[in-house]
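Take just one protein record:
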Amino acid sequence: MDRISKLPVGVIETILCLLPIHEAARTSILSREWRYRWITIPKLVFNEDMFEVSDYVSEPSVLEQTFDKPSHRKVMTTRCKLFYAIYQVLFMHEGPIHEFTLSMEVDRSCVEIDHIIRHLSKKNTVKILKLELKWVYKLPLSLFSLHKLTGLYLSGCVLDHQPSSNVFRSLTTLYLDNIRTCKKELLCLVSSCPSLKRLTILSDAGTINDGGDYTIADLIKCVPLIEYLSLMFFIFLINVDEEFDESVMGPFIPEECSDILLERLNDLEILHFCNEENELAFVKLILAKSPVLKN
């Protein structure tokens, strides 16, 4: 331990960042010198799986009695432990938080996560935010106050706000998985990231509503600096009010992208590619408009 204590502060910080947060906190018992080292680490990762709840059956509390099934009580207890841990860490934390990750099951409305994001927005040091949420969580307006973000990863979230122009001026990576929104708000989000280099959209037509007459051309025009693009192509091609079928594929007109040049696009990935005429036309256009495309 003496050898580790003599390492440069930056090296010790890196080591602590590699540990699960609860293990990093346990280093506080090593010595007086180590008591508060962990509260300055800039990378915080919270995963619901870290918190195991015993199957031991005890008399439920008044709060637990509001849940009819024992399984619901167990989930509630796990969430309480997780949020309590997060609040404790954020309360004690000193210095900047550069990366914050939260992975858990959640309801559509979760005030605890709202409070966490609001706290992070006030601190305004976060560069990478990852919300890996199962089911659907409605994103709060405070998310758009994280102006220093360079990477935003959202999974299982609901986006029903339209961010102002260039709100994510520093964002270079945007990853969206199973996001519930409409095309207009999705385009507003993408267009609010003028420095975007990597874009992934893994939401299908079942989660992205029409919300206006928008095409894939509108999306491409929002990302002139893009280097990596991965998406489920038909989210901008079909009528989401009907089941997916070749007959409901919308038109793709290459002329809509006649003024586009993707000078930096290196990698293109299209999921659920069906070899339809409009898809092939889109790929042909991308090949013509992307002089440095490799993959």
Notes: The first helix runs from residue 2 to 5.
